[in-house]
## 1
Amino acid sequence: MKQPAVKSKQLNAFMIATFMLLTVVLVAISFSMSRTYRNLNELITKQAELQEAAYDLQKGSDYLTEQVRLFTITQKKAYADNFFKEVNETKRRDNALIRIEENLTNANIRSILENALEYSNELMKTEEYAIRLVADAIGDDLTKYDAAIQNITLTPEDLTLTAAGKLQKGQALVFDQDYTNQKVRIYNNIDTALDAILENTGRKMQEVENRYRVMMLLQNILFVVTLLLAILFIYLFTRHYVQPLLKFTKLMEKKEALTVEGSEELRIFAKTYNKLLEQIKTDQVELTYEASHDSLTGLYNRKIFDDVRTSVRDATMLLIDIDNFKGINDIYGHEIGDRVLQKLSKILSDNFRHEDYVCRIGGDEFAVIMMHVSSSLKSLVESKIKKISAAMGDTSDGLPFNSLSIGVAFADRENATEDIYVDCDKALYAAKDAGRNTYRFY
């Protein structure tokens, strides 16, 4: 009768010892998995930080482009001041590169982003020279400008230019194809670096996944040794770790949001990953949208208008001004003024095709580029103008009466200058000179 008891005790001792050993091993494995999770979380966080820094480098370069272009167009010194405030104080590009160097060990990726900054600095020389030309053309006191502008010496050829010639050349320097190509070069470097960052992080994530698989193999060996305890452990571990990880792997390969399930660590990881993924997608959408659309009306902005008008040939252009818009703001207030702008934006969007470009290019200045429309469709254009003018004059919505002055230039117009925008602007001024609330064709 004692033998079974001894065996039972031995079995219990063996089970206890096995359970304790399993517990120790599981604790070690759990600790390792938690550490691996933290490493993975750090990788994702670092990736997001690196992407944000790369975007900041791009935004800093784009801001300089925006301010120098505004200065050459408007000749308002405030834009030149904004330009040098970004260069000397805000320093988004330089600060972004510092953050990248602090968080990135890959020398090749760092070199690509350093090249992007170098290209941006090279482009800045062109931008500063354009500012110098325009400042000279409008006769500004150069001592009021940044020292970099004061130190620029115009070429002998540029010194002989008239004021109008200097102004034209200053504008051309920041709008011509060479300038655009240099911007594309910067964008390409940043995109290449972002792709490399994603690839580098993905490789490290794969290494983390491989470590998980090694740990699972060790656990399977323990399952065989511990029989029922192993079966229980398999059930729990499979439910809380294996299945979620396999799902995570597939979803991460597809760059989709993770399902929040499994162990607490994996749930936290899934939530963190989903938050970062959503933020990255949102930032990308917002960056793209904000760079091309007007915030008040949702129409394309001046940048898109300029890009399109210089790249298309088979198109008709309309320039549209709201008559006496300043008076509307003064009498009814800016809120009503904004509603009037939004009203015209909706009318234009409703009356033109998706393939046409409807843009807000200034305060109350709008433009439409009708793709693949020639002077043979003049009657169609007139019909649209009349419909738009009638809709703007409708006061049933509670807004004050508004009339429009519209200039039109066809791609196949007679006596055309080199720039359709210039000809369309002449037509617009002809409409205004005719008493407004009308339209004229170039």
## 2
Amino acid sequence: MERARTCDVLVAGGGPAGLFLAALLARHGVDVVVLERRAAAPAHSRAIGLHPPALLALRALGLEAAVLAEGVRIGGGVARSRGRELGRLSFERAWPEHPFVLALPQQRTEALLEQGLSRLAPGALRRGWQVLDAREGRGEVVVDAAGPGGARALWRARVLVGADGARSAVRERAGIGAVARTYPDAYLMGDVADGTADAGTAVVHLEPGGVVESFPLPRGVRRWVVHTGRRPLAADPAVLAALVRRRTGEVLDPASSTMVSAFAPRRRMARRLVAGRRVLVGDAAHEISPIGGQGMTLGWLDARDLAPLLVRALAAGADGDLRAVEGFAGYERDRLRAARSAARRAWLNTALGRPARGAVARAREDLVRAALLPPARGALAGACSMRWAREPDPGAGAGAGTPLDTVLTASTRR
């Protein structure tokens, strides 16, 4: 094994949260390295929702215009059941400056983040590397990593950030427990050519056999998500098309499918986000049901709040437990609170989409109709577009509630 390499912040995981955090740090002079176990960039769409607070966060990196140019603006949604419209929702009043949720496949989002990081810190992203172990010393974390072809390397970082997903090795090696829950639900999801008349609109079909959701994507594609009961079905576009047609009457072309997957939603919350010189963000900190589509933005908001704290701690030479450094305990408290709140909304979305017949189905329809009437409609639009995340969480350190760029710039001048 070669001599240990050094950096200020080592980020384990080069997904959306890890890349976003690394770019924020690099923009303000932090020596950051990202170790990503995948040897190549992802090829599938996966997460697609960029909510207004995500767009504001991307503005700090100069990437807002790029994602807006590529994505589809979803200005609202419509709920239907058994061939009838239950009501409509608009994001216009919830976010006047961004009256939409942007739909963009995750591989494009990650590619733009990777390009942004490469401009700020060439070579910072190292693919094919993953964290095997980590141990703490005074003011540093020593990380043992494995790379391509059996290569091994030691890194000495002043801070280690776990952005390595729901089964985070950083979280496990730090001895941070997580509370997990599996929902009794399964879904089939796929992207196919959009043959609907619902351009620019999200559609939720609350059908007796289970929910069918659809969202427009760039280049004439539409994402479909179908509740399939308690067990995942085969990931087959023909099965997806048959379910959609049976429940909604919409005709899908299986041959146009670019992605299909089956999944069961889970919830997993880390008991802590800060341990010694280690910090968690994104799914490593909180995995929530993807029904509702807020998980990726939630991870970016972690990074948004964490970045100024790391910049300031590094500039001040803080070398002890980060929980004793101003702002980090607040980061943990507030980000876990936000994650639990988002998880509750995701659970409600999941529960509403389960199969329902007879009186239960009629009660559900009545509930949704009421939710899509004023004044409840405004609150629902705010929840769906993450209006609650408009400003950095209180307690996230000095400068909370201040635009991110101002906080970071002030921190580097200390």
